[in-house]
């Protein structure tokens, strides 16, 4: 997700001259979908009001309507992975941000998720990552779900995947994760199993942080 944030903030710096507070507050009310007020978002996230203003300008440049649909999100994400296919991973990431499951991401959805990923506690980051892997949102991660996410990450990285990807590598990673996470061997991983395994195993934590970095 750092890639998406990068393009939003960079476009803001390139396109917008300096503005005063009145202009910023006025802009927050001129899109088709009005986001939450800056004061409210500042209270709900770990961003300052100035940071929210910068993020919002970039968000509006990409999405003048005030909301992002999945196709736009995929288009933005694909720009940063030209040597691979980012479409499936962007699909899963979009669904993780679309907490209301209505097919769109509002500015509030975007900055709330971003706040967790960039400045949340370790527990909050792990919970967010768990929900990314929990594709069907039933409160568990099964092998099929984890395999889909891991394979989508490898597809996105393309030929720059290191070490060079062989057909069974994603499944090997999933098998290793499940061996450590699925403590009671019931075939699924709960949130607590996921969090505990990541906190107890530094290798596991580094692996999950690697996957998180492509967000």
Automatic annotation (TrEMBL):
Transmembrane segments: none
Cross-referenced Pfam families: EF-hand_7, EF-hand_8
Subcellular location: Cell membrane
Keyword Lipoprotein carried by entry: no
GO biological process, one term: regulation of potassium ion transmembrane transport
Region Disordered, residue ranges: 1-23
EF-hand domain span: 85-120, 121-156, 169-204
GO MF annotations, alphabetized: calcium ion binding; potassium channel activity; potassium channel regulator activity; transmembrane transporter binding
Superkingdom, natural source: Eukaryota
SUPFAM superfamilies named among the record's database cross-references: EF-hand
GO CC annotation terms, alphabetical: voltage-gated potassium channel complex
Coiled-coil portions: none
Record keywords: Calcium, Cell membrane, Ion channel, Ion transport, Membrane, Metal-binding, Potassium, Potassium channel, Potassium transport, Repeat, Transport, Voltage-gated channel
UniProt xrefs under PANTHER family: CALCIUM BINDING PROTEINS, KV CHANNEL INTERACTING PROTEIN 1 B ISOFORM X1
Family per similarity comment: Belongs to the recoverin family.
Name of the protein this chain belongs to: Kv channel interacting protein 1 b
Native species: Seriola lalandi dorsalis
């Amino acid at each position: 997700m750092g890639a998406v944030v990068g393009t939003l903030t960079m476009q803001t710096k390139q396109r917008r001259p300096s503005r005063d507070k009145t202009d910023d507050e006025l802009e927050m009310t001129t899109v088709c979908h009005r986001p939450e007020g800056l004061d409210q978002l500042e209270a709900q996230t770990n961003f300052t009001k100035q940071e929210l203003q910068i993020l919002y300008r970039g968000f509006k440049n990409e999405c003048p309507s005030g909301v992002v649909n999945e196709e736009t999100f995929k288009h933005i994400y694909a720009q940063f992975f030209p040597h691979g296919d980012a479409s499936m991973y962007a699909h899963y990431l979009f669904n993780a941000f679309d907490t209301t499951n209505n097919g769109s991401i509002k500015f509030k959805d975007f900055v709330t998720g971003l706040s967790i990923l960039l400045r949340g506690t370790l527990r909050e980051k792990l919970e967010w990552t768990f929900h990314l892997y929990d594709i069907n949102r039933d409160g568990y991660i099964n092998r099929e779900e984890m395999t889909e996410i891991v394979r989508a990450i490898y597809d996105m990285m393309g030929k720059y995947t290191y070490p060079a990807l062989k057909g069974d590598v994603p499944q090997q990673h999933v098998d290793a994760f499940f061996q450590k996470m699925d403590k009671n061997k019931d075939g699924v991983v709960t949130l607590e199993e996921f969090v505990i395994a990541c906190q107890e195993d530094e290798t596991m934590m580094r692996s999950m942080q690697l996957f998180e970095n492509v967000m």
